[in-house]
Amino acid sequence: MQSWLIFVFGLGVLGQGEMCDFELVTREEWGARPPTDVQTMQDPVPYVIIHHTYQPPACSSSEDCIKAMRWMQDFHQIDRKWNDIGYNFVIGGDGKAYTGRGWSVVGAHSPSYNNQSIGISLIGDWRVELPPPKQIETARKVIDCGVQTGKIRPDYKLFGHQQVRQGTECPGQRLLDEISTWDHFSKTPPFVWVPNEIPT
Ligand SMILES: *[C@@H]1O[C@H](CO)[C@@H](O)[C@H](O)[C@H]1NC(C)=O
């Protein structure tokens, strides 16, 4: 009986490890302020949207990636007056995944998609250069983890930000070329959001 229980427990732990096999930095660990409001969304979501941060630039040490997270939270929460950092997850050049709003929470990264997608941003400007392999690998693992844990639909569609929003270069052409080789990448978004502000 005892060894049977240990076996089952062991399988559980192993399963978890396989499902979400990357280093996750909690909000507490990067020194996030609490969100001013949290809106939950219904899981599992049908879309995954990939972004680059453009600014802040790429970080390779965890110290710099943490600074980037705080900078973004200040920018989104204080300057833009959003509830929180806009993305659900952010991937650093240190190969770690940083918790933004996290799973099951409506983001502020892709209008019209925020309540039905997970937005993942890779820190850096990826118009010309490709993120380092470990940063790409972790982004893919976060998506897999979401599918395995019931946060993302198994038949999800993957898009780069510019495919679902007019007038942005995000996530950078080089990164877009990269994700277009991933499973679930789709060339046909259900709709493209067009900003209604009149340019001045
Ligand atoms: C997301 O929000 C839009 C606009 O507020 C709404 O029309 C849509 O039904 C929502 N979708 C989901 C999945 O909640």
- The helix count comes to 6
Q: Termini separation (Å)?
A: 72 Å
Structure class: alpha/beta
**CATH homologous superfamily annotation:** Peptidoglycan recognition protein-like
Q: CATH class, please?
A: Alpha Beta
Q: Write out the distinct hetero groups bound to the structure.
A: 2-acetamido-2-deoxy-beta-D-glucopyranose
Helix content: 25-40%
Beta-strand percent range? 15-25%
> How would you state the average pLDDT, rounded?
92
Please name the CATH architecture: 3-Layer(aba) Sandwich
What is the number of independent domains? 1
| Contiguous uncertain segments of 5+ residues | 10-15
Q: What pattern of helices and strands is seen along the backbone? A: HEHEHEEEHEHH
Overall shape: globular
Largest sheet: 6 strands, mixed
Q: What would the CATH topology be? A: Lysozyme-like
Let me know the number of strands: 6
> Could you tell me the radius of gyration in angstroms?
17 Å
Main sheet: which strands, in order across?
Answer: 1-4-3-5-2-6
